[in-house]
Amino acid sequence: MKAAVYYQNGGPEVFRYEDVADPVCGLNDVIIRVESIAIEGGDLINRELRPLAKIPHIVGYQCAGTVDVVGSEVFDRRVGDRVVAVLPWGSHAQYAVAPAADTWIVPEGLSIDMAAAIPVAWGTAYECLFTAGRLENANTVLIHAGAGALGLAAVQLAKRAGAKVFVTASDDSRLNQLKAFGMDIGINYAVDDFVGKIMSYTSGRGVDLVVDSIGGKTLASSIQSLAYGGRAVTVGVSGRDSEKLDPVMLWRGNKSLHGVYFPSCLDAEHQRVHYRVSEILEAAARGEISVVIDRTFPLKFAQEAHQYVQSRRAFGRVLMRP
Ligand SMILES: NC(=O)c1ccc[n+]([C@@H]2O[C@H](COP(=O)([O-])OP(=O)(O)OC[C@H]3O[C@@H](n4cnc5c(N)ncnc54)[C@H](OP(=O)(O)O)[C@@H]3O)[C@@H](O)[C@H]2O)c1
């Protein structure tokens, strides 16, 4: 099969479009003929930093397509099922192997492209806001990088829950687009001090919750933006900034910091989160939420596709098609 592979970590230029061996189906796995590949924010970080599982390595942890082979211990998936899958690596290819337990049947009425963009971004946004963040009606929430896929999911879910939604992005044009998705107040954190802006918009109180996918200095400022007893949820390191946090800053104001990691099939929480993602897929099929796709590249242009995501110009998810 064809795949976008690399032999060492680095920028988008490390990708090669090559013939590689087809994946092998384990007892509890399915093999998917891939039709749509979501470029997840974590795929960029993995390509830059994380050790390669194989050489050459196929990055990528989310794709959708049609089941081609079913492992002998799998009884709830059939050849021909349309599924979306989360996998440890291997989505940037014509075929991918995934644990069957980490697949979802794509509901009737939902496109393969929309489905490909849902589980991690939306499941994680839900966990940040409601499980770790305990968001309630009338709370105030600050969501960083609102124009990214996780951010756009969080903005919509927070608005549906009745919260007042503050959002950051690094340019005004993408902030303007976010109004249609539930943003109440936008802050361009590339030019404005977002802590000062939040304090001024909330009359010095701060917000109840921050969803922080940026990390480093931004995470420290997120904690400064919190109201008394507020919660910061750390979920990503998109800022690539290794500044360490001083936990003493949580003391004054009795603030708390929570981590969120989208559970894998080994986690005790798997069943609960898997069910939640099924509900989100159904809501998308009914048109109740908007899954935003910025654009789609052919897989053979994985270099250009990753370069585009890295440029921070995308609004929503960027996909590739084998
Ligand atoms: N813990 C978990 O289980 C989990 C699950 C899902 C995602 N994540 C993490 O959450 C983050 C967001 O994921 P995503 O899929 O929503 O990513 P995405 O769609 O690619 O969006 C990332 C956003 O981050 C912002 N950003 C800030 N600094 C950046 C930089 N140096 N390079 C690129 N983007 C930068 C950009 O918005 P602005 O330009 O507006 O700042 C961009 O839109 C990633 O770090 C990902 O690893 C973690």
Automatic annotation (TrEMBL):
Domain Enoyl reductase (ER): 10-320
Domain of life from the UniProt record: Bacteria
SUPFAM superfamilies, alphabetized: GroES-like (SSF50129), NAD(P)-binding Rossmann-fold domains (SSF51735)
One MF annotation (Gene Ontology) recorded for this entry: oxidoreductase activity, acting on NAD(P)H
Name of one Pfam family that matches: ADH_N
Oxidoreductase in keyword set: yes
Keyword terms of this UniProt record: NADP, Oxidoreductase
UniProt keyword annotation of NADP present: yes
Classification via PANTHER family: QUINONE OXIDOREDUCTASE PIG3, QUINONE OXIDOREDUCTASE PIG3-RELATED
Entry protein name: Alcohol dehydrogenase zinc-binding domain protein
Annotated source species: Paraburkholderia graminis (strain ATCC 700544 / DSM 17151 / LMG 18924 / NCIMB 13744 / C4D1M)
